[in-house]
Amino acid sequence: MERSGRHIGFFAAAAIFALTACAGHSAASPTPAPYVQTAVASYGSIDPARHLAGVVAPYENVAIQSSLSEPADVVSVREGDRVRAGQVLATLDTADLQAQLESDLATANSNHANTVHTVYQGGLSIAQGVDTVQSDEAALQQAQQTLKNDTLNLVRDQRLLAQGYVSQQSVDAQTTLVRNDQQAVNTADSNLSSARSNVQANGSLSGQGLQASAVQQSAAQEKVALAQADQVRVQIAKAAILSPIDGVVVNRNLNPGEYPGTREIFTVQRVNPIYAVLHASSEQVAAIENGAAATVASADVNGNEHFNGRVVGVLNEINPGSTDFEVKVVLPNPGQRLRPGMVVQGTIAALPVRGVRVPVTAFTDDNHDAVMTVQPGGTVKTVSVAEVGTDGSTSVVSGLPAGTRVIGNGQISLGDGEKVSYQQ
Question: pLDDT tens, 208-251?
Fold first, then answer.
């Protein structure tokens, strides 16, 4: 009996405890609404950025050839060498060109000597022609004077003949003499005309005429020989193959003793500055302008080191009918840490975008097409939006009125209609 009484007491105490616990549970306060960080959507502008992938390309890629058919004497560089503009890459043999130059110079000297001789000879011919003119003028004057005297004598003889003082034979002899004098005048005049024509044809050494023409012809031959010599000098100068730019030798296709032919013998790339060629869609390039600031990073360089540059070209579609565009960014590369062919990620500042702004963290997923809003009374409602642009921390959206309160963390697990608490 004593034992069963203890059992009864135990069960009674347990019943009293259970009743007390139930009473305490029913008296507990309701679960409070979860607290969330919020932001008010406001109208304004952002400076969005475009994130584009691409590759590094050389600023210049120069293929070097030679027009000379001469073998190489010396090749001074190897692939991978850094070179400066004007640096000698290779030297071609010029022995035959030197011989040709000496021959052309000898011809020029000979022509110069001939020019000098022609000048002296022309001067002599001109002087002799002038002397001949003077001599013929004197002869003509002499013949004219003789004709004049003999003509006066003939007149006197004819008068004396009429008076019977001289014979007809004397008059006839004087007439013949006058005729001979006239012929002598004609001959002297002809000689003078010929001498004057000769002087006129000879001209002067500094003007026009046969002698000046002969001097000019000889001088022209001298100039031709000198021009040929200059041509050979140019060819000799081309025997030194020079780098046209500062850069890196990426291809060497010439060895000592080889003839350059028509092939590419060196390729030199300029890599400071350097290009980042980024690929973009038509929607992305629409907001990118030349001169826009750009930042490029490559995982291959010092743990994603960043390089700052500017957009220098927004190129049209790469292939007709495609939507693949190119954006060229020029970057300083003094240490040549960026190399052609490296894969890079570029961030380019685009044109400002105005509209309703929300935090990037407010989007409910990676598609950025919905945000959670807090309605009057503190209930949650998901609203569909469209992202117009973003600067990485703030986005401009459409489909949401300004002044709407949005939940800052759109990834939080909340359902529509659920109550939340927030700081006003």
Answer: 888 888 888 888 998 999 999 999 999 999 999 999 999 999 99
Cα 241 versus chain centre, distance: 21
CB burial class (10 A; 0-12, 13-18, 19+) of residue 6? exposed
d(CA 268, CA 63): 7
Which residues on adjacent β-strands are paired with residue 60? 270
Assigned architecture for domain 38-46+353-407:
Beta Barrel (2.40)
Candidates 109, 63, 105; CA nearest to 236 is 105
Asked whether the bond before 340 is cis by omega within 30 degrees of 0, the reply is no
327-368 tens-digit pLDDT: 999 999 988 899 999 999 999 888 888 999 999 999 999 899
Provide the CATH topology of domain 97-234: Helix Hairpins (1.10.287)
Tokens of 323: 């939507």
Q: Which CATH number fits domain 268-349: 3.40.50.10090, 1.10.10.10, 2.40.30.170, 1.10.287.1700?
A: 2.40.30.170
Is pTM beyond 0.90 here?
no
| DSSP letters for 273-326 | EEEEEEEE-HHHHTT--TT-EEEEE-TTSTTT-EEEEEEEEEE--SSTT---EE
